[in-house]
Amino acid sequence: MIHRNIKQPAIEALSAGEGTSKQVLISPDEGPNFAMRRFIIESGGHMPLHSNSVEHEQFCLGGEAEVVIGDETVTVKKNDVVFIPAGIPHSYRTTSREPFEFLCMVPNKADIIEMV
């Protein structure tokens, strides 16, 4: 069993984005099938276009962002859900004054990240 408060895991800055950080809530070593991460992209921040070899299931906790998924751009805000298939290029750009925060669940498989 795993039980912890969201404030317990460390938050680490990501070098690939600007004003972007990640918090691992359930690591691949803990969950048998999925890992759960929380991403925070500050106002004016972004994560550049990239692809992952695993799918992403995401739930927006707050803020607003333009999310590019393949050839489409969508505006994502609190309580929205997003599915990003494996191998599809995607990016994030916060458009709100408050940080864009979301949970991201990924399968426990090797994840190869490629910057586009």
Give an overview of the whole structure.
The protein is mainly β and 116 residues long. It has one domain (11-115): Jelly Rolls, CATH 2.60.120.10. It has strands at residues 11-13, 18-26, 34-52, 56-62, 64-69, 72-77, 81-84, 90-94, 100-107, 113-115. Strands 1, 2, 3, 4, 5, 6, 7, 8, 9 and 10 form a 10-stranded antiparallel β-sheet that branches. The mean pLDDT is 97.
Question: What topology emerges from the helices and strands here?
Answer:
Blueprint: E1 11-13, E2 18-26, E3 34-52, E4 56-62, E5 64-69, E6 72-77, E7 81-84, E8 90-94, E9 100-107, E10 113-115
Antiparallel strand pairs: 1-2, 2-3, 3-8, 3-9, 3-10, 4-7, 4-9, 5-6, 5-8
Short description:
This protein has 116 residues and is an all-beta fold.
Can you identify the CATH superfamily? Jelly Rolls
* Structure class: mainly beta
Total domain count: 1
Number of helices: 0
The first-level CATH class is given as Mainly Beta
Number of strands: 10
- Characterize the main sheet: 10 strands, antiparallel
The radius of gyration computed from the alpha-carbon positions, rounded to a whole number of angstroms, is: 13 Å
The low-pLDDT segments are none
The CATH topology corresponds to Jelly Rolls
Pattern of helices and strands:
EEEEEEEEEE
CATH architecture descriptor text: Sandwich
N-end to C-end Cα span: 38 Å
The proportion of residues in beta strands is over 45%
Shape: globular
| Helix percent band | under 10%
